Amino acid sequence: MRPAARLLLQIVVLCACAFASPGQHGDTAAIDKFIAGQGSYKNGQQAEGVRTVLTGDLNDDGIPDAAVLYTLEGQNGTNNYVQYLAVFVRVKGRPVPIAHALVGGKNYRAVEIKAIENGAILCNTLAYAPKDPSCCPTIKRSTRYALQGNKLKELGHK
């Protein structure tokens, strides 16, 4: 490759990275702010390293939204944990939290979001059998959540 072409390619790549970065940082900052507020409201804190963010169209406007699964723990000094699913839609290019719901937690079920398809958030779950210890649910299931207005609705589990 000629030196001038190589230089031009490097400039294009650097500019593309520079323009992509602020949006991603803004998304993370908006998500961080929302979760911190929820943690304060629920007297807990976000569990480190267990947040999952998926993007896809959830409100049928053709613009990618974000589904965020996060865990709050230590509410009021306990060893409890609760999983929440939040949806952020784009308003003027910025992520805005529109809905959130409690979806899992200790002695309830463990949730893992897998994909966004056809406007629904697909999840794998582990539910508790009667003799399961509080650390270890064992019943494998799946469920879906969809945005209906400004609420998340569970569409059923298998």
Helix and strand topology:
Elements: H1 3-41, E1 45-46, E2 52-56, E3 65-73, E4 81-91, E5 94-105, E6 109-117, E7 120-127, E8 139-148, E9 151-157
Antiparallel strand pairs: 1-3, 2-3, 3-4, 4-5, 6-7, 7-8, 8-9
Summarize this entry quickly.
This protein has one helix at 3-41, and strands spanning 45-46, 52-56, 65-73, 81-91, 94-105, 109-117, 120-127, 139-148, 151-157. The chain has 158 residues and is of the alpha+beta class.
Structural class estimated from helices and strands = alpha+beta
Number of strands: 9
Radius of gyration: 19 Å
Based on CA inertia axes, which overall geometry fits?
Answer: globular
Provide the helix percentage: 10-25%
Low-confidence stretches: 1-23
What proportion strand?
Answer: over 45%
- How many alpha or pi helices? 1
> Could you give the distance between the termini?
55 Å
Along the chain, the helix and strand elements come as HEEEEEEEEE
Main β-sheet: number of strands, strand sense, barrel status?
5 strands, antiparallel
**Average pLDDT over all residues:** 82
Count of the domains: 1
Textual characterization of the structure:
By secondary structure, this protein is of the alpha+beta class. The chain has one domain. It is 25% helix and 46% strand. It contains 1 helix and 9 strands; from the N terminus they run αβββββββββ. The chain has one helix at residues 3-41; strands at 45-46, 52-56, 65-73, 81-91, 94-105, 109-117, 120-127, 139-148, 151-157. The strands form 2 sheets. Strands 1, 2, 3, 4 and 5 form a 5-stranded antiparallel beta sheet that branches. Mean pLDDT is 82; it is low at 1-23.
